[in-house]
Specification:
alpha+beta, Thioredoxin-like_sf, three-stranded antiparallel beta sheet, Glutathione_S-Trfase, Glutathione S-transferase Yfyf (Class Pi), Chain A, domain 2, binds glutathione, GST_Omega/GSH, 10 helices, glutathione transferase activity
């Protein structure tokens, strides 16, 4: 775990002293957009047109933010258009490294650490070195390292190549999706990290309280409706899914998010199984990488690096959500 300062790697853990024991996530640095014709997106510069084989994605199978992008790559039929490299689940003193990953198609296959990819994009960069990273082979730089924006590019920019129209952020539902995303991001996706990385009792309790208030709210909402917004899955569902699938295996124990398990919530656990059983999605879920990453990498939380064997899960069990309609 560490970060880059002026292009030089420093091995340091998160500094929570200046924030009263609270974990504060930094904003992503690379914020350009791939668009159909290379026009600029909402932030950053243009010049990144959607083309087959031009972009390469770096992910960790452990990371919930990277997992979103992998799911969208699969759901949008982009596997043959956008290559992928999976980093080693063990994140140590050098941050994310490639280990014995399959590097076929990787334009930076000469590099052994992810921070070197950031430095190649910008030799003076000061940044945390996070996954996901979307790399442009043509201009040899990072297009984006912000998952919420990469999933929107994958949903929209490649329609001319895949024949798949945008579907996960429909115009009429945007305000409601944004509102759900805002609460889920702050209290659930990031909430588990705020609980797990807190270094003061009060900071931990504040995060866990807000997290379970939101899970109770989601349980109530999903007991009446099949999807969070509208009548088919949207990005709001996929953004929640990647936290839910890690919850019982990792966040309950490692991050002490243990008032209840997802298994104790009937609607949330059926909903989790239905999303998991969506064609293509199970292949993006690797519980070995997930458990290994968290329990091995965060030695301030788990100094022995022992990885638990459980819990026993059956994500293939019937989800029982058909009665809620389309
Ligand atoms: N805002 C980013 C967050 C990505 C992120 O924090 N990824 C974690 C892995 S789950 C990471 O790479 N952390 C390394 C670090 O913080 O040094 C996104 O959503 O893309």
């Amino acid at each position: 775990m560490g970060l880059l300062v002026d292009g030089v790697w420093h091995d340091v853990w998160y500094d929570t002293d200046k924030s009263g024991g609270k974990f504060e996530r930094q904003a992503s640095q690379f914020r350009n957009f791939v668009t159909a014709d290379g026009a600029p997106g909402p932030t950053g510069t243009g010049g990144f047109a959607a083309e087959a084989g031009r972009y390469h994605l770096y992910v960790s199978l452990a990371c919930p933010w990277a997992h979103r992008t992998l799911i969208f790559r699969t759901l949008k039929g982009l596997e043959d258009l956008i290559g992928v490299t999976v980093v080693d689940p063990k994140m140590g003193a050098e941050g994310w490294v490639f280990g014995d990953a399959d590097r076929s198609g990787d334009p930076n296959a000469d590099l052994t650490r992810l921070y070197e990819v950031y430095v190649r994009a910008n030799p003076d960069v000061s940044s945390r070195v996070t996954v996901p990273v979307l790399w442009d082979k043509q201009t040899k730089t990072i297009v984006s390292n912000e998952s919420s924006e990469i999933i929107r590019m994958f949903d929209t920019a490649f329609a001319g190549l895949t024949g798949r129209a945008p579907e996960f952020y429909p115009e009429p539902l945007r305000a409601e999706i944004d509102a759900v995303n805002a609460r889920v991001y702050d209290t659930v996706n990031n909430g588990v990290y705020k609980a797990g990385f807190a270094t003061k009792q009060a900071a931990y309790e504040e995060a866990v309280t807000a997290l379970f208030e939101s899970l109770d709210w989601l349980e109530e909402r999903l007991s009446r409706r099949r999807w969070l917004v509208g009548d088919q899955p949207t990005e709001a569902d996929w953004r929640l899914f990647t936290t839910l699938v890690r919850f019982d295996p990792v966040y309950v124990g490692h991050f002490k998010c243990n008032l209840r398990r997802i298994a104790d919530y009937p609607a949330l656990s059926g909903y989790l199984r239905e999303l998991y059983q969506t064609p293509g999605v199970a292949g993006t879920v690797d519980l070995g990488h997930i458990k290994t990453h968290y329990y091995w990498s965060h030695t301030t939380i788990n100094p022995t690096r022992i990885i638990p064997k459980g819990p026993l899960l059956d994500l293939d069990a019937p989800h029982g959500r058909e009665h809620l309609g389309a």
